[in-house]
Structures are given as structure tokens and as C-alpha cells.
Automatic annotation (TrEMBL):
One of its GO terms (molecular function) is adenylyltransferase activity. It comes from Streptomyces triticirhizae. Keywords: Fatty acid metabolism, Lipid metabolism. One of its GO terms (biological process) is Actinobacterium-type cell wall biogenesis. This is AMP-dependent synthetase/ligase domain-containing protein. Residues 1-20, 468-517 are annotated as: Disordered. It comes from the Bacteria. Coiled coil: none annotated. Belongs to the ATP-dependent AMP-binding enzyme family. The keyword Lipid biosynthesis does not apply.
Length: 517
């Protein structure tokens, strides 16, 4: 059973009044100066090795590696791109902040995870597309991967500098550390590639200012600050892992305790044990993580857990299922979990990460609506067996982020309770797609010129606007414009799955279907 009590925390929805940094690299420098001995990042690897950096250590390591990246040749804007292809871990975190410190653009990637020939070909093909697209000046990867990187680079006419930052001998050969971060708010901090599963991957251009705004918005919503701990296991090449679990806590001066997806999958209770042992206030995971913890951890493995410190359990990056929220909250209530901690969120790469989140004072909003009416583009209470359960994903996560449900044909807001295309505008919206002027024009620029009540980036997803919260359905993007049904957000819901489509749950037609809003 749970121990009683939890440490004093910032009031939810607030964050300590810290100066807004110019960039995340400057935020790290400030924390290194003011609380240098405090834990910044602790990592448990798949091999069971634990490593950590204090804020001062992470800052020093970033400046040292950053010095080796600062003089790299750049693109036409004279800014070098650096592909990070390291395994998830402390070295990945250091490499990311080194890129920012050097004024370079980090391009997040990963080493090959699977050994099959087919998986290997898929990895090489995607790698080649990304190398051809952004043409990085350097690739940070372990030495064992260098030959493969060189071969794929040669296939696209590229010879990047290959550097293994995990080797102490290479680090010792470098120039003196940078005296201070070189990053500027308006420059690109991150090139975040879309999945590219059905088309060429597109690099979303995320500026340093975008990163700070998104991280600060999350911190303000969650009341994040020094003395608190965030726990997670998401991969760092994923935006929710990098921005949600590294950028946001570091900007706020929190301690971060991370493991890897492999550690979680092998021993799911390790995630909850870390939350319990270190009195974590925040965790972030996709829906399947919470579902796994609710269904796969036997009760005897939960002995001694105390989840009473957990104020925010963010659920995003994939469809949010009502069943998962209810099961996780019910299963762990005896171990101190507050049901108000469950927080469905909605976001996308084009918005840096977060777009909407649930109010910290509210439990997740679940509602049953008529499936036929929803299919017709309207929201009405369920009055028959054909019903859809929607999960609210909250409101715009900052006051200066505008989320609207729009009829794409008229480019005007839909009335409350109607379905439409989700449009997003605000300081977290990225600058467009790298070397994709036509796609940038279609998705970003054209909408900003539209004469409508709100301007923003149209999302290839559906949502609906209702009083109180944005319902969420699928993050699975509806790409077929001629047949897509799109929805919108105020208190906002996006539709995770649409009844009677190939993506729907394998249930009989007349049963209730769950949809994440």
C-alpha cells in the first residue's frame, strides 16, 4: 500500500518565476551556475548501466563537445546540421545540448534497432533519404556504425564528419570548451523528421524559440520547477521523449530519471518503481505504456509502490483510449494514484510537441456520442447502440496558442459541436518543412494568409470543438483528402479511430467504439 504524504510542490498550473532563457542552451547554463550540483539527468540503459550528470556536468560536457561542432561548415544559411544517431542515453542528451551550444541544428535519428535483413534495408533507405535531404556536416554515432554511415553517405554523394562522442580518447583531442552557448532564438535548433512511412520524410524546422516556448508552456501547465523529478522511458529520437522528457524538465530545472523502451518492455514495473522511489511528479508515456502497466504487472509485483507524488501522467503520441485511462487509474488507486493525475495531451511535430492538454484540476473527460451523428459531422448524445466514446484532450496549452476546428473548404471556424480540420497557430508552430517550399506553402503559409477568424497550420487529423475540452481520436493521419473526415478543437478532441474503417477496433458493428479525443 502507499506511504502517506508527498513533498511540497509548486501549485498546479504555475511554475517558479525563472527568467525566460534565450535558448535551452542558455537555460542549462543558468541552472549550471545556480544549482550546479543538482541532478540534471540520470539514465538506466538496457544493459543495466546507470549514469548521470549534474547540471554543471551536463553543461561542461555540452560546451566541450559543442566546441568540436562550432566550426563545422554550414548550409546556405551558414548553420551546420548535425545528425545524432546515438543510442538513447546520457550521450544523446549531451549531444543534443552540444548542438544547441554550438549554434548547430540537431537532426534526431537513431542506430538500427533490429537485425533482420529487411529491417536493415529499411533503416538504410530512410537514412539515405534524410542524409540526401539535410546533408549534415557531421554525424554523431558510435564507432561500430561509422562504416555503415560512410557507405550510405557515399550512395547519396555525402561525406560527413563521423564522430563518436562516447569515446574518451576522442573527447581528449578536442579544442578548448566553448566559453558560452552560441545558439540564437531565431536559428533552427532541431530538424524533426516526420515518419515517412507512406511518403518521403519531411524535416520540420523547429527554431530555438519554438523549443523554449513549448518547453516553458509545458512547465507552466504542470507547475514544473527545481526540486521536482520527471520519470520516463521514451526514446530520445521521438519528440515526446526529447522535448517532453528532456527539454521541458531541463528548462524548468527538474531532475530527470530516464530508462529505455527495452527496459520498460522487459520489466514494466521498473517505470512505476522509479516514480515511487524518487517521488516523481511528472511522467509521460504513450497509451500502450499505461495499458501495459495496468494489465501486465501482477499485483504482487506492485508491493511497496507509492504513486501519491505523481501529479501529472501525460498520455499522448498515439490514440488515447478511454479504457486505458479508466483501468490505469483504477488499478493503481490502492497505491496512491490520484485519478486527476491522468492527463491526455495532443500535439504534433509541426507544433514542436504540445498543442493542447487537460486542465490540471480536471479528471479526463469521457463522453459517449452517437456514431452516426459523428460520422455526419455533428456531436450528439448517444441514444442507441451505435456510440463512440471520446476522450477530451483539453484546451490550448498556452494563452498565445490558438487551436480551431475549421471547415477546410470555407476556411472558417466550425460551430461548437461540429467536426472539422484542426488548425493550430502560435509561437510553437514550426517554420515549415526543410527544402519543401510547396508543402510549406500548402500547410503553413497559405493558411496564415487565409481570411478567417483564426490562422494556423492545418493538421491532417480530425477533431471537434466542444465546451470544456478537445476530444482526441487518432494521431493516425487521415491522408486521403477526398474522403477524409476532419474534426476540430477548443476543448479539443481528435478522433483516434473511425468506426467502420480498416483502423477500427475489431468489434461487431453494433458495439461501442472507443475514440481518443
Amino acid at each position: 500500500m502507499a506511504r502517506q504524504g508527498a513533498e511540497a510542490l509548486n501549485p498546479p498550473g504555475t511554475t517558479p518565476q525563472l527568467p525566460q532563457p534565450a535558448t535551452l542552451a542558455h537555460a542549462l547554463a543558468r541552472h549550471a551556475a545556480e544549482r550546479g550540483d543538482a541532478l540534471a539527468v540520470h539514465y538506466l540503459t538496457a544493459g543495466g548501466v546507470r549514469r548521470e550528470h549534474s547540471y554543471a556536468e551536463l553543461h561542461r560536457a555540452a560546451l566541450a563537445l559543442g566546441a568540436r561542432l562550432a566550426d563545422l561548415p554550414g548550409d546556405q544559411s551558414d548553420q551546420p546540421f548535425v545528425l545524432i544517431a546515438l543510442p538513447g542515453g546520457l550521450d544523446y542528451v549531451t549531444a543534443f545540448f552540444a548542438c544547441l551550444a554550438a549554434g548547430a541544428t540537431a537532426v534526431t535519428y537513431h542506430p538500427p534497432a533490429l537485425s533482420s535483413a529487411r529491417a536493415g534495408r529499411g533503416y538504410d533507405e530512410r537514412l539515405a533519404r534524410i542524409l540526401r535531404d539535410c546533408r549534415p556536416s557531421a554525424v554523431l554515432a558510435e564507432t561500430d556504425l561509422h562504416e555503415r554511415l560512410a557507405r550510405v553517405g557515399a550512395e547519396v554523394g555525402l561525406t560527413p564528419w563521423l564522430l563518436d562522442p562516447t569515446r574518451a580518447d576522442e573527447a581528449a583531442e578536442g579544442p578548448p570548451p566553448l566559453a558560452e552557448p552560441l545558439a540564437r532564438p531565431e536559428r533552427l535548433g532541431l530538424l524533426q523528421y516526420t515518419s515517412g512511412s507512406t511518403s518521403e520524410p519531411k524535416g520540420v524546422m523547429v527554431s530555438n524559440a519554438n523549443l523554449v516556448h513549448n518547453a516553458a508552456g509545458l512547465a507552466a501547465n504542470l507547475g514544473s520547477g527545481p526540486g521536482q523529478t520527471a520519470v520516463g522511458w521514451l526514446p530520445l529520437f521521438h519528440d515526446m521523449g526529447l522535448i517532453g522528457m528532456i527539454c521541458h524538465p531541463v528548462l524548468a530545472g527538474m531532475a530527470v530519471r530516464m530508462s529505455t523502451p527495452a527496459v520498460f518492455l522487459r520489466q514494466p514495473v521498473s517505470w512505476l518503481r522509479e516514480i515511487s522511489d524518487h517521488r516523481a511528479t511528472v511522467t509521460i508515456a504513450p497509451d500502450f505504456g499505461y495499458a501495459t502497466a495496468a494489465r501486465k504487472i501482477p499485483e504482487h509485483r506492485r508491493d511497496g509502490l507509492d504513486l501519491s507524488s505523481l501529479r501529472h501522467a501525460l498520455n499522448g503520441a498515439e490514440p488515447v483510449r478511454p479504457r486505458t485511462i479508466e483501468e490505469f487509474a483504477k488499478q493503481y488507486a490502492p497505491w496512491g494514484l490520484d485519478p486527476h493525475a491522468m492527463m491526455p495531451v495532443y500535439g504534433l511535430a509541426e507544433g514542436t510537441l504540445c498543442v493542447t492538454c487537460l486542465d490540471h484540476r480536471a479528471e479526463p473527460a469521457l463522453s459517449e456520442v452517437s456514431a452516426p451523428e459523428l460520422r455526419a459531422g455533428r456531436v450528439a448524445p448517444a441514444d442507441g447502440p451505435r456510440r463512440v466514446v471520446l476522450v477530451g484532450c483539453g484546451r490550448s496549452f498556452t494563452e498565445d496558442t490558438d487551436v480551431a476546428v475549421v471547415d477546410p473548404a470555407t476556411r472558417r471556424r466550425q460551430p461548437e459541436g461540429h467536426v472539422g480540420e484542426i488548425w493550430v497557430n502560435g509561437p510553437s508552430v514550426a517554420g515549415g518543412y526543410w527544402r519543401r517550399p510547396e508543402a510549406t506553402e500548402e500547410i503553413f503559409a497559405a493558411v496564415r494568409r487565409a481570411v478567417v477568424e483564426t490562422h494556423g497550420v492545418p493538421v491532417s487529423e480530425m477533431g471537434l470543438l466542444r465546451p470544456g475540452a478537445v476530444p482526441r481520436t487518432t494521431s493516425g493521419k487521415v491522408q486521403r483528402r477526398e474522403s477524409a473526415r476532419r474534426w476540430a478543437a477548443g476543448e479539443f478532441t481528435t478522433l483516434a479511430r473511425w468506426p467502420d474503417t480498416g483502423d477500427a477496433d475489431p468489434r461487431t458493428p453494433d458495439t461501442t467504439t472507443e475514440e481518443s479525443q
